[in-house]
Amino acid sequence: LTFIVWVLFVKKLIFLLLLSCLFTPLIWASEPDEVLDEFHAAAALADMDAYFALMTEEIVFLGTDGSERWQGDEFRDFVRPRFESGNGWEYRPSDRHVLYSADGGIAWFDERLTHGELGQCRGSGVLVRKAGQWKIAQYNLSVPIPNEIVDSVVQQIDVGTSETDPVSAAP
């Protein structure tokens, strides 16, 4: 009888472990979503403290212009004057996808964004779990270009670059 009880106990334990493995990604899924929603809300309200609290110290932020790459304090220095003036930026997220590393310590995401002036945008990046909290380690803001007009846009970028970059303008 003791052996049967032990076998039943082990079966229950294995079942509970498997069940917890199935639901763990669902628990993880809500946390990065909440961080990203708070990130966008803080930006819209120009809430500098809340905005910066959601990032790692060494965050890398890539803007829509090819020259826009800020890291850590450089990004905070870029944001600070705008937020101090009371002007944030509002990107409304939708259609977000989040994937996780096997150990659950890293999350990759992409999301569609809507902006009042830029229209449809895309955000993508990486969150890391530090001291039990998700933090944004990298954010990439881009403006998707429809395939039908991409050649024209590339030509415009080339013209704009060659006019401002003496190396590109050289024959």
Produce a short descriptive summary:
The chain is of the alpha+beta class and 171 residues long. The protein is built from five helices and six strands. Helices cover 47% and strands 31% of the residues.
> In which order are the strands of the major sheet placed?
2-1-6-5-4-3
User: How far from one another are the termini?
Assistant: 89 Å
| DSSP summary: helix tally | 5
Instruction: Indicate the structural class.
Output: alpha+beta
Annotation, overall tally of beta strands:
6
Largest sheet report: 6 strands, mixed
Low-confidence parts, pLDDT < 50 over ≥5 residues?
A: 18-29, 166-171
Helix content: 40-55%
Could you describe the 3D structure shown?
- It contains 5 helices and 6 strands, in the order ααββαββββαα.
- The chain is α+β, with helices and mostly antiparallel strands.
- It has a 6-stranded mixed β-sheet with strand order 2-1-6-5-4-3.
- The termini are far apart.
- Residues 18-29 and 166-171 have low confidence and may be disordered.
